[in-house]
Amino acid sequence: MYELVQLTDRCFYVQSPAKIGVVRTGEDEVCLIDSGNDKDAGRRVRKILDERGWHLHAIFNTHSNADHIGGNRYLQGQTGCRIFAPGMECDFTRHPILEPSLLYGGYPPRDLRHKFLLAQPSECEPLTAEVLPEGWEIVELPGHFLSMVGFRTPDDVVFLADCLSSEATLEKYGVTFVYDVAAYLETLERVRAMKAEIFVPAHADATADIAPLAEANIEKVHEIARRIRGLCAEPTSTDEVIEGVFGSFGLAMSFEQYALVGSTVRSYLAYLRDGGALDVRVSGDRLLWAATA
Prior knowledge:
The chain is 38% helix and 23% strand. By secondary structure, the protein is an alpha/beta fold. The chain folds into two domains: 3-222, Metallo-beta-lactamase, Chain A, CATH 3.60.15.10; 232-291, Arc Repressor Mutant, subunit A (Orthogonal Bundle).
């Protein structure tokens, strides 16, 4: 863990819970793609850079989940590097309390205010094409989170952030976090058709052929949608659907899992409702979901 893996002359990643891209942009200058999950990750990355005499000048965050921006504050404080993030992710990076608030649907209790969901704030600037190193391209990857992106470097390495889970993760957990199901499926279809020298998903092995993993993720989304619709064969409340998903996939309930899986289930309910597969009605003081004919 926290070993530097070389991909090309100028592209590397740090093997960590969420892979951290390292790209040389000059003789001794580098930028990062994401920064790890906490201050300790930042320290480990800085040690790797210092051992090679590399100076960090920028961090390009793919999105604002805590495991991708957790090292920002430490690294920015130590090196003075600039930090960039796309769209709404920039606001969430500046104000990380927004992540657990979104997941919980209100001000989060202390059970959700920990480093795995709540990073330290950092000074962040909007990501635009103009601030990228020469030859880089932004790859739009919405769906997993608000405005997530990846990057294609000049040597044709594509960093894919969290748009794909490994097959082992899909098998073990069944339900992975998704904010916008329709956008996520569109992203997966585009990624399935992509070609590159090598792809680097944050939570799966680097590979030259991304299509099989994209297909596995697409099928898992459809499976989850089918199961949720099946749970609504009779009018069912949101919490009853969440309970059914935990039981169906054999998930262990905890406050954090309730927030993550519960938020994802609500996103699937919205997706099915917008697609006409579910109806929603009010019965007394309960909001109920029901499969359409």
